[in-house]
């Protein structure tokens, strides 16, 4: 069991690390586009298209890690006032609901991805990007999120104060 | 097909799970799926893949992680640390001294950080212990920090506005500009309130030491990085040099350079900032993703149309309709965070707003103000708890300090109802 949990933790961290690289790439790509357009009167044509793919990748690859570290936003008004024992029961019920939700998403995104792959669908843009690539990142991220939910069910961790500020 | 029992069950379960503490994204997404299955059957789920891909794959949404990255770099690198001191040197002459600094510093800090809670914690952590030692009135100090923290979601760049734009298909640039003037007006009103109170009763804020020579220059130098960064973002958007997404990328890039120039932080600090940005962005974007599912459910079950027909059938006047909305939003906002509130209500309200002929840009500003208001609504507004935990002044004292700001927000809402151009004038120039 222990190797499974540390394996999942490793995958979640690796996913978030790739998400970080993608965020940096997105920053540089979009900044470069502004510089090219304003100072060299040229454009890369694909910046808007790619930043769309990249934001999906940041979401998907970061979600599992965010779930693992309890950074997903929640309403804690009632939850925090419940006795400790109730937290455990709620944790199991919430974990099962989350697992069901994630499995449904995985299934639907897998269907989308397989269809894209079968049809060889390309983006209707200059780059004609094969869409199975960015959609594959979304699928990969959602599978990581499912693993994070499963990991929480197998070895519950007490919610900590999120490492990051909630964007209220 | 419209089936009231299934809809009530689906929506009831969503709200129930949300309030009990299931993650907002999962509660909303699961509720949407449940609604679809109950009303339309399992076959309706087959569209979810297309909907998620089609809506999330958006250049507009990519502004969100980039603005968060910009803020994280400024916060983590410590560039924002001397900002409070700098601001205090600039606004010290206005009656109220450091209380004025709380408001002015919060307004700018919150605009950059985009987070009310983070602002109240950051400014409160610096300001409250110092003001307690200096003998400031504790209710006034706590109230100004709690209320000041709320200013950031109105003053651009605002994450909530980006989320609002994805559901209304409005220009983010125009929404940002629409929030700017009301943001400045309410900041000025907050500062005027403190000045008047302290002029009438000088014991609320002790006299500051006489200013030293060169204080203004030093102050300007200390606030320059934050102000400069904000100007870069706003001017590039307003002048049409960059889209909000591009301005966000430039903002993050410039923030990294400013941090390097001023603090020379180790690489580890940048890595931490990027990691935090990915985590925070993913958490917010998951809510947006789930909201697209519930929006699809609400549309395909005919719920939005049924609700519109019902509200229009009531024949409410515009003012009464808006007042009812204010109350509902203010109550919901106490329980659900800003983004959750926007994604849950806006898709449902859109057809009703259109039937009343309401300007959606103006409504975006109104929504954000009501969300801000809910952050300081006694007894559950989250900023009250944040400030109470820092100041240890007691929740009752914090609430006493905050109530006048509540009145000021109500005044601002009234002004916006009477003179909508406070919000719509700036975007109309673009």
Which structural traits does this protein have?
heterodimer; A: 168 residues; mainly alpha; 4 helices; 0% strand; disordered C terminus; B: 430 residues; 20 helices; globular
Folded structure, characterized:
Chain A is mostly helical and 168 residues long. Chain A has one domain (2-154). Chain A is built from four helices and no strands. In chain A, α3 runs antiparallel to α4. The longest helix of chain A has 38 residues, at 2-39. Chain A is elongated and about 65 Å long. The model of chain A is unreliable at 159-168 (pLDDT under 50). With 430 residues, chain B is mainly alpha-helical. Chain B is globular and about 75 Å long. The mean pLDDT of chain B is 86. The interface between A and B is large, with 66 and 76 residues.
- From the alpha carbons, calculate the radius of gyration of chain A and give it in angstroms: 19 Å
Structural class of the secondary elements of chain A? mainly alpha
Tell me the distance between the termini of chain B. Answer: 43 Å
Shape of chain A: elongated
Number of DSSP strand runs of chain A:
0
If helices are DSSP runs of H or I spanning 4 or more residues, what is the number of helices of chain A? 4
Helix content of chain B: over 70%
Main sheet: strands, sense, barrel of chain B: none
**Order of helical and strand elements of chain A:** HHHH
Can you tell me the residue ranges of chain A where pLDDT is under 50 for at least 5 consecutive residues? Answer: 159-168
Strand content of chain A: under 5%
Offer a concise description of the structure.
Chain A is mostly helical.
Secondary structure: elements and pairs:
The complex is a heterodimer of chains A (168) and B (430).
Chain A: H1 2-39, H2 47-68, H3 84-119, H4 132-154
Helix pairs in contact in A: 1-2, 1-4, 2-4, 3-4
Chain B: H1 4-20, H2 24-40, H3 48-56, H4 63-76, H5 83-91, H6 98-113, H7 116-133, H8 138-149, H9 159-168, H10 172-200, H11 215-238, H12 244-263, H13 267-300, H14 303-314, H15 318-335, H16 338-355, H17 360-375, H18 382-391, H19 395-418, H20 421-428
Helix pairs in contact in B: 1-2, 2-13, 3-13, 4-12, 4-13, 5-6, 5-11, 6-7, 6-8, 6-10, 6-11, 7-8, 7-18, 8-18, 8-19, 9-16, 9-17, 10-17, 10-19, 10-20, 11-12, 13-16, 14-16, 15-17, 16-17, 17-19, 18-19
């Amino acid at each position: 069991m222990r190797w499974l949990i540390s394996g999942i933790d490793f995958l979640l961290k690796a996913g978030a690390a790739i998400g970080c690289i993608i965020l940096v790439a997105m920053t540089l790509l979009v900044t470069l586009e502004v510089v090219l357009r304003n100072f060299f009167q040229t454009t890369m044509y694909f910046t808007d298209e790619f930043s769309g793919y990249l934001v999906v990748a940041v979401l998907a690859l970061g979600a599992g890690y965010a779930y693992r570290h309890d950074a997903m936003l929640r309403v804690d008004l009632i939850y925090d006032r419940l006795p400790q024992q109730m937290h455990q029961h709620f944790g199991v019920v919430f974990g099962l609901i989350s697992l069901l939700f994630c499995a449904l998403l995985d299934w639907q995104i897998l269907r989308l991805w397989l269809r894209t792959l079968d049809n060889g669908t390309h983006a209707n843009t200059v780059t004609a990007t094969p869409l199975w690539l960015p959609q594959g990142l979304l699928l990969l991220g959602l599978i990581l999120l499912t693993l994070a939910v499963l990991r929480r069910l197998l070895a519950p961790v007490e919610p900590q104060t999120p490492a990051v500020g909630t964007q209220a | 097909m419209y089936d009231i029992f299934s809809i009530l069950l689906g929506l009831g379960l969503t709200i129930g799970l949300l309030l009990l503490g299931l993650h907002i994204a999962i509660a909303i997404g699961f509720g949407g799926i449940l609604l679809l299955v109950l009303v339309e059957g399992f076959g309706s789920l087959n569209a979810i893949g297309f909907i998620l891909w089609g809506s999330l794959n958006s250049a507009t949404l990519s502004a969100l992680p980039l603005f968060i990255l910009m803020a994280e770099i400024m916060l983590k690198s410590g560039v924002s640390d001397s900002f409070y001191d700098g601001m205090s040197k600039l606004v010290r002459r206005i009656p109220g001294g450091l209380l004025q600094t709380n408001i002015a510093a919060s307004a700018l800090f919150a605009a950059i950080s985009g987070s009310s809670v983070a602002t109240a914690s950051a400014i409160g952590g610096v300001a409250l212990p110092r003001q307690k030692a200096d003998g400031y009135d504790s209710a006034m100090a706590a109230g100004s920090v709690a209320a000041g923290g709320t200013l950031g979601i109105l003053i651009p760049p605002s994450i909530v506005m980006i989320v609002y734009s994805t559901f209304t298909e409005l220009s983010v640039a125009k929404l940002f500009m629409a929030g700017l003037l009301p943001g400045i007006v309410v900041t000025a009103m907050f500062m005027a309130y403190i000045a008047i109170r302290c002029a009438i009763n000088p014991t609320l804020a002790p006299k500051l030491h006489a200013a030293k020579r060169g204080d203004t220059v030093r102050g300007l130098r200390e606030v320059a990085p934050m102000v400069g960064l904000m100007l870069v973002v706003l001017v590039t958007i307003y002048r049409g040099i960059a889209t909000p997404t591009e301005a966000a990328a430039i903002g993050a890039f410039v923030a990294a350079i400013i941090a390097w120039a001023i603090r020379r932080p180790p690489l580890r600090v940048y890595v931490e900032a990027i990691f935090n940005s990915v985590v925070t962005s993913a958490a917010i974007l998951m809510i947006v993703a789930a909201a697209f599912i519930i929006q699809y459910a609400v549309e395909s079950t005919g719920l939005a149309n049924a609700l519109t027909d019902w509200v229009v059938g009531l024949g409410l006047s515009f003012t009464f309709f808006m007042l009812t909305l204010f109350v509902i939003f203010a109550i919901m906002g106490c329980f659900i965070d800003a983004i959750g509130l926007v994604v849950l209500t806006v898709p449902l309200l859109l057809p009703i707003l259109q039937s009343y002929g309401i300007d959606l840009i103006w409504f975006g500003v109104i929504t954000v103000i009501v969300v801000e208001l809910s952050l300081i609504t006694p007894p559950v507004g989250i900023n009250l708890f944040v400030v109470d935990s820092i100041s240890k002044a007691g929740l009752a004292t914090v609430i006493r300090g905050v109530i006048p700001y509540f009145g000021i927000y109500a005044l601002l809402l009234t002004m916006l109802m009477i003179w909508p151009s406070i919000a719509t004038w700036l975007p109309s120039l673009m």
